[in-house]
Amino acid sequence: xxxxxxxxxxxxxxxxxxxxxxxxxxxxxxxxxxxxxxxxxxxxxxxxxxxxxxxxxxxxxxxxxxxxxxxxxxxxxxxxxxxxxxxxxxxxxxxxxxxxxxxxxxxxxxxxxxxxxxxxxxxxxxxxxxxxxxxxxxxxxxxxxxxxxxxxxxxxxxxxxxxxxxxxxxxxxxxxxxxxxxxxxxxxxxxxxxxxxxxxxxxxxxxxxxxx
Length: 212
Fold this sequence. Notes:
The chain is α+β, with helices and mostly antiparallel strands and 212 residues long.
């Protein structure tokens, strides 16, 4: 029996509806639950390598010392830009929708660029770097993931450095090749700039396992 135009239309609607629901669910998962990211560069070597793929969890994440995280390196500068736009419009702050609209015309140097780093200290803790070692709250930091020496990289960052509220201090495991909180270019990282915590390396296949 041939299908009527009505039944064909209904079937097409059901297919379209299912696709839209699937897309919405995919966006919700990516936005709130977990994401898959690719490591770009060597700043976390030897813990992580260039082109590694990581599963990053987001929901309910609270920053902890030692965690490997993915962060938006331009978050702070972009928020300052949004604040300036709001001020120019006579507003206290831009709404989420206004930020999305403004995002389409963002300068290139304010667009999202993700870094992978390790949390060295959380809010209220004090970081010091001396004699090639890292100290947190006066005690030398145990770093089994790193065997070299650590040095300050930017005279604008003065030690001892106390981490501000709702911020973290991060470094790459490859201390000689990492732009991190030792540099005023990145500085301490606002918790709102953190995409999530790296949980698992899923590529290359011979290196699958937890990231820690």
